[in-house]
Amino acid sequence: MKVLSLLKKKIKEDEKIYFHTTGAFKGTTFGYLYVTEKQVVLVEVKPFGRMAVHNYEYSKFQNVDHDYAKLLGSENYMIYLKKSGLLGEKTERITHIPPRDFQDIYDFIKMQIR
Length: 114
Hints:
alpha+beta; three-stranded antiparallel sheet; 7 strands; about 20% helix
């Protein structure tokens, strides 16, 4: 229930959620990944039951890229959201997207940014 109350603060009532899965933004803490028509939202589950919300609005990014890594038998699918910054390009990273959802989520985000 705590996740839903946090989502209500970031996602507008009329905004549609197209994908709900797991993921991570900084690569170390996992959470619930929501892909909407206007943004990507991750509710990060921190130790001791704390939660934090991260969101990236598509309108702030100019490009999207992806990568795949396999290390010690573990697969990691990543999406990079890129925007121009004061000193070059800034990249935000969404990692640990399940393989079954990755391609659909990547294609959807790419369509929204372009």
